Amino acid sequence: MKSIVIKCGGSVMEELGEAFFDSLLELKKEEYQIVFVHGGGPAINSMLELYNIPHEFVNGLRKTTPEVLEVAEMVLSGQSNRKLTSMIELHGLRGFGVNGSDAGLLKAECINQDELGLVGEIKAVNQSVLEMLFNEDLVPVITPIAAAEDGTKLNINADYAAAAVANAIKAEHCIFVTDVKGIFIDGNLTHQLDADEVEQHINDKKITGGMIPKVTSALNLISKGLNSVMIVSGKEKFYEDGIWIGTNVSAKREVLT
């Protein structure tokens, strides 16, 4: 079974274009199983502000009180997941929205409850749930909400959730969807970079501004055991006639096939 995991942030979801879905359809015709893991950061922030719920980030992770978790799950499951699943359906694929805590799909434990509250790290992925959906030719659309052994729900960084799923199903590719084609160095799209080169380009200020969080997310995924992550645009084709279009960021130099 060939599979790819696609991580789509909440800010990018609104910008997914026809060409992006054309690439998904092409991959599906080539018998790839496709899994989405999505975030919803901007919408969560807006809802927290609407309800006047204090919120903050600690070391890049959202500190998650019970009140914050309730809002996060409401937005992720009730808004972001519904929207992305509907978009997938409208473009000819059969999307199936699922909360990561459902049926023990994502099992996790708290990272540091004193500092971060209800933030978890995934310890296991229930592959049988995904296999069941694959067998029905469905595209799982997963929220990064997991469950602890005692049933407590935990907020998971969407990057880390995508990496855990990709590792569990041994995905051929992990795709990180952004609003640009990939990483540009000196005005040119770079097709291959390793982690050391990324850090060097940041130090040399060749990777700047809004590109830094994008490559940081890619490095986060790699830090969880993935060999590589492909940064692609959600507005354009990222796969056509067997060719991947974007920047492949690897733990070490590799040739993409």
From TrEMBL:
It comes from Cytobacillus firmus DS1. Catalyzes the ATP-dependent phosphorylation of N-acetyl-L-glutamate. This is Acetylglutamate kinase. Belongs to the acetylglutamate kinase family. ArgB subfamily. GO terms for molecular function: acetylglutamate kinase activity; ATP binding. It is found in: Cytoplasm. Pfam families: AA_kinase. Keywords: Amino-acid biosynthesis, Arginine biosynthesis, ATP-binding, Cytoplasm, Kinase, Nucleotide-binding, Transferase. It catalyses: N-acetyl-L-glutamate + ATP = N-acetyl-L-glutamyl 5-phosphate + ADP.
